[in-house]
Structures are given as C-alpha cells and as structure tokens.
Design goal:
Elements lengths: L1 H13 L6 H21 L9 H17 L1 H9 L10 H10 L2 H18 L9 H24 L2 H7 L5 H29 L5 H5 L2 H23 L6 H23 L9 H16 L7 E8 L2 H8 L1 H18 L5 E6 L2 E7 L3 H16 L3 E2 L5 E2 L4 E8 L7 H17 L5 E3 L12 H4 L4
Parallel strand pairs: 6-7
Antiparallel strand pairs: 1-3, 1-6, 2-3, 4-5
C-alpha cells in the first residue's frame, strides 16, 4: 500500500516532464514570464491604506473557498466535470483596487490556499498544473491592473469620485483584459496537449464564457464596495457560494444526461428526448414525421482485441464526433452502450434520412485514430438501420427502435457498412432489444 502511494506521488510530481515538447516549453515559459512580471510589479509603491482592503479580499476569498469546499469534494467525486472555483470575482476586485504588487500577492496566496484546501487531494491536478494556473492568473491580473491604472479607474475609486462613463470603460476594459489573457493562455495549452477538434473547443463554450463574464461583473461590484468601505465585501461571499452551488447543480444535471466516454447523450436522456419528440410529432397535423437511427460500429471487437481498449475508447469518441458532424442542427445523437449509437431526427422523411445516414457513413470512413504504438486505425465503418414514423406504424419509441434495430441487423447480414430502412409493413412483430425496454442498461 505504501509503495503504491509513493509511486502515485512520484507520478504526480514528475508528470510535468511527460508533456509534449512544445507544451513543456510553453508551460515553463509562462511560469517564467509570471515570475518576471511579479518581480517587476514590486517597482510600484504600496500605500499603507492598501493593506486593509488586501486583507479583506484575501479573507473573503479564503472564506468563499472554505464554504464551498464541499462543492469541490463533489466535483472531485465526479472528476469528468470541469473545474470551477469562481476565484475571478476576488482576483478582478484586487486588480482594480490594489497596487500591482498586492494584487499579485492576493492571487498567489489565494491559489496556494486553494491548493491546500482542494488541490493536494486531487490526483488529476499534479503540482505543475497548480503552478501554471497561478502563473496564468498572475499575468491576467497584471493585465487588468494595468488597464485600471492607465484609465485612472483605481485612482478614482480611492478618491471617491466617479468618472461616469469613463469609469465604466475602465471596468469593462480591465475585465476584458483579464478574460483575454486568461482565455488565450488556457486555449494555447489545451491546443498543445489535448488537441481538440477546433479552436472553439479550446476557448470554452458560450455557457463557460458567460459564467466567466458573470464572475468579472461581480468582481467589479466587489471593487466598488471595497473602495467605499472594505467590510461591504463580506456579503459577496454569500453570493459567490450561492453561484458556486448553482453551477455545480447544473454540472451534475449535465453529467446525469451525458455519456462520459463520448460526450453524447446517454441512453436514458436520449430515450426521454425521443419519447417527448414522438409525442409532439403525433400531435401535429398529418404529414409530420420523425426518424430514428440505430448505428453499430462494424468489427469493433477486433479493434479492442488488436489495439487495446484505450484505443477502442478513442475510436468511439472519434466516431461519436463524426456522427455529430453529419447530422442536422436539432438532431440528437446518443450512445446506447458498447459500440451502438442512436440518432433522433425530428421532421425527416425517408429520403432525407437515408441521405443523412449515408453522410454519416462517409464521415466515419474518414476517421483516423493513432493507436499509440506508431500505427493508425483506419477503414472504420458503421451499419445503420432507419425507422421513420408514421411509415413504421409504431406507437412508442421502443417499437421504433426495434424496427430500426431489425433494419440494422439486416444491414449487417448483407455485408455491413451500409444503410437499411425498416419497411412500412412487417411479417412478424418486431422484437425490441433489451436496451430499448431498459434504456439505462
């Protein structure tokens, strides 16, 4: 037991050197730049009356992290969820009202405290990641602090005078500078290490950036409160913890609907969405249609046996991405477990459904996956079964899935890598698969 713990600690300590070459150079460069910028920030004087707001902001940030640590425990238990700490609230407030040296000290002490409360127990965050995060936030803070100084915002806040629209420009400019520096630094390291499908994936979703904008807005109001009287920052701890909890609930709801391996809807969430869509379609005037696909990756067991399960998982993720690229906006792709996928297509007729299915096959043909040993997994194919309501006269999603499933197995029987559609009539009752009756299995 002791040896396993020691090995894990060593892996975390030295995992920095396992980064790709470009990523390693980038991480160390950002760390060094932050260190030089911190040294340069000491050139600005630190007024005596700045220590009180510094202490209040640091205390509020520590109180926020302590009050929300149970949220972070839940996040660690669901490690596939994105990390959210809402520290930007206190960081921007410090950048606006504190001299640069104290603003940097606030960031360093805040993240050191966060590591002590949360990070040291999180095996997914080795020490170099905590150092790099701190370095990024130091640079983002100094960018915001520079804007606050150049626009006269910091001086105006302490003098108790309002610059009106000019102060608003300073607020927005400082927040934008912090967001831009932080987002850029994060996006580059993601592009160098994770290699997402697009730059958009690296800069975060609209919801992620909206949350960051909300934090920066709250940080601006904290700065106003601190400049008026430092004690007014304390009520913002309640707001920060409440926002933190709301974000966690949203993440857990998302996790409950999402397949962790592919990022698609899981079987239960997809089945519920399909059921609601079928009910809605049946209530529409005659002529309304809805289609379902059942998709199976051909010879997937051979991929696992030849290249290993890790490569197999990567193949599933790439195929899931290919399927999503081929569908229309508003269609829903879900994973039913194993190598099987289901697709919901509202308002589609049979001809369009076949065209979409053929487009999916073409996208999957283009998928190439590195097996980690210098080889490439290529030549991937899928078999697809289609059922379109009301041509397939089923009254439930399970019935439509059974029809699509029968068409899928017909495609496999005829040689795989093809599309087959369920007929309008059947000689015998469809036999719904177990996954159709129990979508969570």
């Amino acid at each position: 037991m002791g040896r396993a713990r020691s090995t894990s600690s060593g892996d975390r300590r030295w995992s920095l050197w396992s980064l790709p070459g470009q990523a390693l150079v980038y991480v160390l460069s950002v760390d060094l730049l932050a260190l030089l910028a911190t040294a340069a920030s000491t050139a600005w004087p630190v007024p005596a009356d700045s220590w009180t707001p510094f202490g209040v902001l640091l205390g509020c940030a520590a109180l926020h992290l302590h009050c929300s640590r149970w949220i972070e425990r839940i996040r660690r238990d669901h490690s596939h969820l994105p990390h959210v700490d809402l520290c930007s609230i206190w960081i921007l407030a410090g950048a606006l009202v504190l001299p640069p040296a104290l603003a940097v000290a606030l960031v360093v002490l805040m993240y050191a405290h966060r590591w002590w409360v949360v990070g040291r127990w999180d095996a997914s965050r080795p020490p170099h990641r905590n150092v790099f995060t701190t370095a990024m936030m130091v640079l983002a803070t100094l960018a915001a602090s520079t804007v606050a100084g150049l626009t006269g915002l910091r001086e105006g806040l302490w003098a108790g005078r309002s610059g009106g629209a000019l102060d608003l420009v300073g607020f927005v400019g400082a927040g934008a500078a912090q967001w831009l520096v932080n987002t850029t630094l994060v996006a580059v390291v993601i592009l160098l290490t994770v290699r997402p499908r697009s730059v958009r994936d690296a800069v975060g979703s609209a919801a992620d950036n909206l949350l960051e904008a909300g934090q920066l807005a709250l940080g601006g109001f904290v700065a106003l409160a601190v400049a008026w009287w430092p004690g007014y920052a304390l009520p913002m701890v309640v707001a920060a913890v409440a926002l933190h909890r709301t974000v966690l609930i949203h993440q857990l709801e998302l996790a409950a609907r999402t397949d962790a391996k592919t990022g698609l809807l899981n079987a239960e969430a997809w089945h519920l969405q399909a059921t609601l869509e079928l009910q809605r379609t049946r209530q529409q005037p005659p002529g309304a249609r809805m289609g379902l696909f059942m998709i199976d990756v051909d010879h997937f067991k051979d991929i696992n046996d030849t290249h290993g399960h890790q490569t197999g998982d990567l193949v599933l993720r790439r195929i899931a991405a290919a399927l999503e690229c081929a569908v229309r906006r508003g269609d829903a792709v879900g994973r039913f477990g194993g190598e099987e996928f289901a697709v919901l297509l509202p308002g589609v007729d049979l001809d369009e459904a076949v065209a979409i299915a053929e487009r999916m096959r073409a996208e999957v043909h283009r998928v190439l996956v590195d097996d980690g040993d210098g080889g490439v997994v290529a030549g991937l194919t899928v078999s697809i079964g289609i059922a379109v309501w009301p041509e397939v006269a089923e009254d439930s999603v399970s019935g439509l899935l059974a029809a699509a499933d029968s068409a899928l197995y017909e495609a496999k029987r005829l040689g795989r890598d093809q599309v087959q559609a369920a007929g309008a009539h059947r000689r015998a009752r469809w036999t719904p698969a177990a996954r159709s009756e129990r979508p969570g299995v």
